[in-house]
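Before the break, one more example. Copy the sequence into your notebook; we will annotate it together after we see the structure.
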Amino acid sequence: MSLPHIPLPPCRRDSLPPTASPPIPPVPSKLTLKPQKPANLPRYIPSYIKVPPSPSISKMEEYSVQDSSKFEFCSPSLWQDSFKTLYQFYESGQLCDVEVKAGERSFRCHRVVLACVSQYFRAMFNSPMTESKQNVVTIQDNNVDASSLELLIRYAYLAKLKITVENVQPLLYAASILQVEPVAEACCKFMKRHLHPSNCIAVKNFAEQHGRSVLMKLVDEFICENFVHVVDSDEFVNLSPGTLELLLRQTELNVDNEAQVYEAVIKWVRHDITFRKAFLPQLMAKVKLPLLSPTYLMEHVESEDLIRKNLECRDFLDEAKYYQMSLVSLVPDVKVTERARPRKSYAGVLFCVGGRGVSGDPFRSTECYDVRKDCWFKVSDMIARRRHVGVCSAGGCVYAVGGHDGKDHLCSAEIFDPEINRWTELTSMATARRGIALACLGGPIYAVGGLDDNTCYSVVERYDPRSDTWTFVSNMNIPRGGVGVAALKGHLYAVGGNDGTTSLDSCESYDPFLNKWSVISSMANRRAGAGAAVLNGCLYVVGGFFDNSPLDTVERYDPKTNSWTFVARMSCSRGGVGVASLGGLLYAVGGHNGKNYLNSVEAYDPLADRWTTVMSIPEWRAGAGVVYCDSPVKVVHQAARRGAVSCV
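Here is what the structure looks like once it is written out:
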């Protein structure tokens, strides 16, 4: 059968005959375009043509103009448009070159898209392995479920997915296995926002199993912050011994007192006594038993069968009892260990009161140091401005006495209650003076030494908080302005100062029962305007001025041997420095280095004999009063946030 005749299509005039060979095009002539300066001629535009205003170069994102002879075109939306098209291909199954299977489901998609998003697929498709050439790839890990795989594939095309409480764990697992790190990080952040005392331990275990170190750290921080609530949850007893021990080591553990830590350990052990009692000594070694009250030690710890039947735990109990007896001088001082250092949450706070800075004007401001968060925060201002003020803490309150307000020497006194964030005036002392030192000894408060423009004082006044009255006690042996004072072992110690002529190295102690001052060993350095504080049964004297030269040296006095020894120097010289002890460390705040006022703060660790820089105080200042107060820092924070009246 003959085929029907099909006529040839008509030839276009610009086409060659079908049988002819295409001509060889001539070599194009070189045309050099030279930038021409446009002639400044009027442009004729017909009235019927609407010409939009020309966009400025800054708005023309598609062009990068380098010179007038060329430009570079860029389409910002191309990649988005391309991936939209790729997703349409994925949805319709077009141009797909690989099939990925998980369980009973499979997904046809594009290798290049998966390789762009997943390190797992990138390594697979670029390797000489068999899978790189296969059209079907099966995920061998049965824990990668099909729903999570589908979400990750869609994410590869759309750059978005929905994370829910129900899918976050399988999705995190799949993202970890397939190495889609942005999704894994998003899952970790989602889980952090949904952490709760009832689920945080399960989340921690999940993070450990899948090597999510960032999530593990976030969960550890959550457990430390919410430890008391975690202990109350059903999940607490599921902690591993190692994890619990690591938690107990944390000085940042947020508890109101160490009894809560002790009770948590006993609860955990009692959940499975047969297996867990073997871990009791290593866990109890991390509990700060010396900081428990004698009553609690006798009524709860000593009577506990788990403690009584374990020799190592009984040693820890004996250590705690000896430490408590040493505080009231019933036994000689015991060696201080980490177990005798409070956790930061109940260590108390530092108050920095008054002083002066670059302007020369005395401050009314009061700032507090939160050791757990390593930050300073403001509380209410004092009633009066005060520099070279005497401060001390008693009964959970802060006292500020004397000083100079920029015009006059002061004899006034005021008290700050951290629970209501309020300063209140007290009865004034008899002698107006600055460079005064304050200390609490057995209830009464002593205002020691000081000076005015004409005199350095040896006078000492005693304040009774119950009657709000001042009385004189025996004078010191010599006048001392800018003296350092601290209470230790039932005595008051006055060190250094200035007698009106020179800085002093002499020291003396006061016995309140004899109402008498007695000379003790002198320091190695003469110093006035030094900071003094007690730590671990010793008196520390920090910085100060030797006449007009600031010092960086630190001396420690041992009342048992009546001797002074040098310890590590500070990082810089500090005259007029404020010093107080907090949480087993000694803090030096501000001061003057001979050229500038300072806002830097450093802490001394007596166990390591080393100074470490901590958060600086906001105001550069010297001549401030710095004191430790045993008020819980959360109470001080809450009162400050309430914005109570500053003074009455």
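Residues 76-194 form a domain with the Potassium Channel Kv1.1; Chain A fold (CATH 3.30.710.10). The chain has a mean pLDDT of 88. Try to locate both features in your own notes.
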